[in-house]
Amino acid sequence: MYELRVYTACTVLGMLSEPPISGAPDTVVSASPQDSAAPASEAPATGGRRSRSRRLRASGTAVAAAGALSLALVLSGCSSEQTDTTSPASARSKAGDDAKGKQGTVDCAKAKCIALTFDAGPGKDTGQLLDTLKDKKVPATFFLLGKNHVKKHPDLVRRIAAEGHEVANHTWSHPRLTDLEPDEARKELALTQDAIEEITGRKPTLMRPPQGRTNKDVSKVSKELGLSQVLWSVTAKDYSTTDSALIKKRVLDQADRDGIILLHDIYDGTVPAVPGIIDALHKRGFTFVTVPQLMAPAVPQPGEVYRP
What we know:
Helices cover 40% and strands 13% of the residues. The protein is of the alpha/beta class.
């Protein structure tokens, strides 16, 4: 019996790309072209220079194509294997009169809101980032990694919560959840839930799947753990550059109302770019909010996938 598989364009792009995966403490490691090369023992034993040259040209073309597809994947926000997503505006419009989402002082149905989010920390530069956010009175949402981050920097986790930012879950060790069995995915999320609760006294209600990859199994596990899934609409690909000016430009080029900005506070170029990003978006009339504030008065529902 044959199995028929139907893939969306997003899924195909995802197969051909390799966004960053967390590795050592305070770093995120992306796969290099060499990682996908076949071992020498599997290479043909014959063929000569001409054949080898053709193979090298083909390999170079494939790498270039994968790079272009990866860029398209990230910049388009085409990162979920599950097509059913809800936008912040849609969530707000469907909220009933008894909705309990906390807006604070901002009504994003009227204001030009945008959410600043940071993945894969905390790290060595998170303290500096928190200083900037405090100075500019900007709230943010932090999707934290458990292993080597939450466990290594409990004081920063405590400070993030104490200063009014939203503390969220980015798994324990940054695997692709769609590649795991449900029990393994549950463990990845539950370990970080417990670690954050131990420090802050509260379990997160939001999570971001690594590389934005989710499916029905991941959604089911997230629902069981009381976690909503949050994707993004703006990315600076800050894992690929240390150029703070370029990071700022990429964010400003994509920023729009009800947007969710994805950055990483573990890369050298990112935290220095944040003050300029905030100032420029303030000048454009944006109000910064946390992800829950962006949805309010709606309350993000466990298991659901939210993306602008």
